[in-house]
Write a structure and sequence with these properties.
Three copies of one chain form a homotrimer.
Chain A: E1 3-9, E2 16-19, H1 21-31, E3 36-41, E4 47-52, H2 58-70, H3 86-95, E5 98-104, E6 107-108, E7 115-120, E8 128-134
Antiparallel strand pairs in A: 1-8, 2-7, 3-5, 3-8, 4-7, 5-6
């Protein structure tokens, strides 16, 4: 028994973390699947997904700033002759395109301080897909 | 058929890698599951899990030092006004909260030089959970 | 129902990204599995796997260069007294040893710009294994 659903989000900044925990929890509930796991997969090459705390929303800003220092937006990237978004490609590979979360009693087994965050590295975009697969 | 078990570890330094390969292998054995895969999921926002070599334990120190250079412990993070552990949150998102390892003949299909290491980024802590899910 | 297959690649540079999308798609097709997911697992401690765009092959070079700036090849690593490949170990832990991709109608649900790339961080090597597991 498997279940899948996708939803679309609109991003409003060049770089932005968006908390999608609520949307994913609703899909897990809708699936009715009691025990298994959930793959949240982002089908984009300049975005990603992480787990982290959103109780203090400043963590989202700290995360983006720190990543910008480690992987600068401009550094004579070869791909910037074409698209100007090389840094976004690099960040998305480091962060990764998916997270996998165990499910028990139809609940995601997230820790107390873990929220699910979509990572926009090359926005704003009108239509970013988040796909949720439950097995 | 699925199996799950969690165990708790105590960390003794602010930053530390702890080899948990032996504990995870015992759980795989106990599960009796022949073919499938294992998700090691860490339900914390300032810790993580990686695969790497522990034959030379210095790799653990090199890893933590290199990560500290890429993501400095202090950098006027906004979250540090509250908790002082912004760098730990950032590192845990980059490293990731889980690893997934295939299982065959009731054995983890790890490479010769791959060990499983819990990553403490905000210790010491008396009680860090490691959850192991086998499907 | 599960399926697995491994293949070997030869790398020809010290650091190199190699597009393995075609090989993985062939294995998915061969499996005949309609709905499920695919784990591409690299059983090495100085290599990894990412998803990213290969329409512009320069992104591979930009990725390796940016990672080399964030994690320098030489930085008085302790492990370099033994093997000289500490940076490769560190990069492989950051990038990660696997990607998980959902499958529907016997097709990998990759986004338009997502290709699967093996990451060599300590080559050249005559025999790097890529293992593909479909569930």
């Amino acid at each position: 028994m498997t279940f899948e659903k996708e939803f679309v989000i609109k991003t409003s900044a060049h770089q932005e973390l968006i908390d999608i925990t609520h949307e994913v929890k609703k899909i897990v509930h809708e699936s009715g699947i009691k025990d298994g796991f959930c793959i949240i997969f982002i089908p984009h090459a300049t975005a990603g997904v992480i787990l982290n705390e959103n109780a203090d929303p400043n963590i989202k800003i700290d995360f983006l700033n720190a990543l910008n220092k480690a992987i600068p937006e401009r550094a004579n990237y070869l791909h910037d002759n074409i698209d100007g978004n090389a840094a976004a490609h690099i960040k998305s590979s480091i962060v990764g395109p998916s997270v996998t979360i165990p499910i028990k009693n139809n609940q995601l087994l997230l820790g107390t301080w873990q929220d699910i965050m979509f990572c926009e590295f090359d926005g704003p975009r009108s239509s970013r897909k988040v796909t949720v697969h439950i097995y």
